[in-house]
Amino acid sequence: MARPAAEVSRKDGLGPRVLSALVMAPVALAAVYFGNPYFEVLVAVAAGILAWEWVRLCAEGHTGPALWLSVAGCVAAVAAAGLQQVAAGFVILAGTVAAVLLTAVLAGGMLRRRRLWLAAGIPYVGVPCVAAVWLRADPDHGLTWIVWLFLIIWTADIGAYVSGRLIGGPKLAPALSPNKTWAGLGGAVAGAALAGAAVAWAAGAAGPAGLVALAALMGAVEQGGDLVESAIKRRFGAKDSSNLIPGHGGLFDRVDGLIAAIAVTALILSLGTGKVALW
Predict the structure, then answer these.
(1) Looking at the chain, which terminus has fewer C-beta neighbours within 10 angstroms, N or C?
(2) What proportion of the chain, given as a percentage, has pLDDT over 70?
(3) Per-domain residue ranges for the chain?
(4) How many CB atoms sit inside 10 A of residue 12's CB?
(5) Distance (Å, whole) CA 121 – CA 112
(6) What share of the chain is helix, strand, coil (3-state, %, to 5)?
């Protein structure tokens, strides 16, 4: 059973955090650069890990078949998207939701009580992962979009941390995250906008103002994604989504803002032609 957040203390120091980042970042960037099939494999692995963390968090160890159904469904949806069958990926996610609900009801006990939470993890994990594959598959600007998203989210995270530490001030949402401040939100938005401007300039974008505005929005979305995960962890009395990454907690703890930004970016683009006009 997950321990209350107040009883959880992270003993990992700066060394493990830096080492983990040095190992993970080059792998992720290489997969992004080389694209299919490396990026799809990376996203599929991430989807499986995120689904695993979600079920373990929500079910507090009483996982049952819901765990492997969730993992298999999210991985299969990413695989379908990698084969350019995005619609099939969403159908797989919908079927997985139904299967998880059914197995949780049949299992009874805690799984039955948590069935809606367990099922909610499928779209929460699967939709951004399918969206990431869809974005990267754009033959003209897929690489640029993913690099753009990585850079603005990393910069937003740094901007939030620096502004929050240096300025402090009123808390953003103390009931959800006691450390986040309005200054941190401003730093995230400003950092994301600067990173978006830099990428737009480097890529020779035709619509840089639009990209900068979109980047600033993603800075706010990144903070929102972080708050959502904080609220979920607080709901289940956990400090981290898992102990998978030394010094970092779980994968969810690293990509909560990124998956939110990917989902929103893909939604905005899907409302148009599906292509990127701003570059």
Answers:
(1) N
(2) 87
(3) 37-136, 141-279
(4) 14
(5) 15
(6) 75, 5, 20
Residue 108 to residue 53: CA distance in whole angstroms: 21
Q: How far is CA 234 from the centre of its chain?
A: 18
CB 60 within 8 A of CB 236: yes
Q: What is the pLDDT of residue 25?
A: 80
pLDDT tens digit sequence for 106-134: 988 888 999 999 999 999 999 999 999 99
Residue type (1 letter), 265: T
Residue type at 182?
A: W
Taking the mean position of all CA atoms in its chain, how far away is CA 35?
Answer: 19
Q: Alpha-carbon distance 190 to 196, whole Å? A: 10
User: Would you place residue 199 in the very low, low, confident or very high pLDDT band (cuts 50, 70, 90)?
Assistant: confident
Question: Residue 44: beta bridge partners?
Answer: none
11-32 pLDDT, tens digit per residue, is 444 455 556 667 778 889 899 9
Residue with tokens 């469904």: 73
Is residue 8 scored above 50 in pLDDT? no
Enter the DSSP assignment of 245.
B
Eight-state DSSP code of residue 2: P
